[in-house]
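Hello,

I think I submitted the S-adenosylmethionine job twice by accident. Can you confirm which output corresponds to this input? Input:
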Amino acid sequence: MNNKFSISNFNLLFKNDNLNVLKELEKTHQNAIKCIYIDPPYNTGFDREHYRDTLSRNDWKQMMQERLLLMRPLLTEDGSIWISIDDSEIHNLKIVLEKVFGKENYLATVTWQHKINWKNYTGKFHLDHTYIVSFQKSNKFKFLNDKKPKTVWLEGEVGNQAEAIQESIQIFGHDNVFCTPKPERLIKTIVELTTNPGDIVLDCFAGSGTTGAVAQKLQRRWILIEMGEQCETHVLKRIKQISSQSDPTNIIHNADNSFYYFHNLKDYNSFTQHAFL
Ligand SMILES: C[S@@+](CC[C@H](N)C(=O)[O-])C[C@H]1O[C@@H](n2cnc3c(N)ncnc32)[C@H](O)[C@@H]1O
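Support: Only one job matched these inputs. Its output is below.
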């Protein structure tokens, strides 16, 4: 049996720095992943309840470049990558993405209307949008069902920040709400545009596990990586909740929810070496 092919059949959750895990996935998941969605710390200069967000510009750029270089080979030739970001680093992100994926593979920068209750922005504007930057691995990429998405995604169509917080309260309770979740409808839009049931979706900045939950409900396979305690307090809990059929959100999901959880990469190594003997 071919190990590379077989390991792709499993949903995987890792608690670790994604740099270490991506190096492992390079051995097991080359050309295997159809869609990467990530929502990294935006480098806003303010630490969050669940993660740090205060790197220097250069450190942030280097952190992203190192990881994006490892992500690209994991994509199938018809795969794509989608990255949530705001004004703080979008300029640096695009420079790094062009370097790693090539200018010719740029798809679009989607503007997402993430808020209707605006907050002050540089003191002179109200802020009501952030971005999702997308690149294809090669020109073999196609949107599914010949869909041609627009570059502006309105909150009525894909959800907003308030909806995401509401979902997080429903799933984790008021006392354990995740600080910066994304709405499931936003991730659903990306997953349905870019993957078929059975395809693998990777999110290596998993946060509270929105991407895994949506992928699971849409019968996609998933790989999630999160280094913070929220890997257990949020991601693990959320995924288990789906399997126990007590998920309070309303995307229809399938019941087959087996997954492997690794908080030690040595365990993943022995799993890949021995699982198929
Ligand atoms: C903005 S949050 C993601 C939120 C997520 N989209 C959701 O809906 O819940 C970013 C996450 O990336 C994680 N993170 C940051 N650097 C990481 C790294 N090097 N390896 C793994 N996870 C990392 C943080 O701990 C944080 O939970």
